[in-house]
Amino acid sequence: MINELRIRNIALIEEVSVGFHEGLEVLSGETGAGKSIIVDAVTLILGGRADKGLIRTGCEKAWVEADFLTEENPALAEKMEREGIDFDGRTLTVFREISLSGRNVCRINGVMIPLGFLKEIAGSLLNLHGQSEHQFLADPEMHLAYLDLMGDERHRELKEKTAEAYQVFIANHRAYAKLVKKNENKDLRLEKLKRELEELHEAEIEPGEEEKLQAECRHLEQAARIHGKVAGAYGLMISGEDGNGSMYNLQQAAKALRPLSEENEEFGELADKIENLYYELEDVAYRLSGLKDRFDFDPNRLDSAENRLESIRKIERKYGATEEEVLQAQKEREEEYEALCNLEDELARMGTEHKRLLAAYRGCARELTKSRKEIAERFREQMMTQLKDLGMEHTIFETEFKEEEGGKPRMPSPEGDDRIEFLISPNPGQPLKPLAKIASGGELSRMMLAMKAIESGRGKAETMIFDEIDTGISGRMAQAVAEKMIMISRKQQVICISHLPQIAAAADHQYLVHKEVLNGRTVTDVREMSGEERTGEVARMISGAGGVTEDAKAYAARMIEESENRKKEMKTN
Question: Could you say which DSSP state residue 510 is in?
Answer without folding.
Answer: E
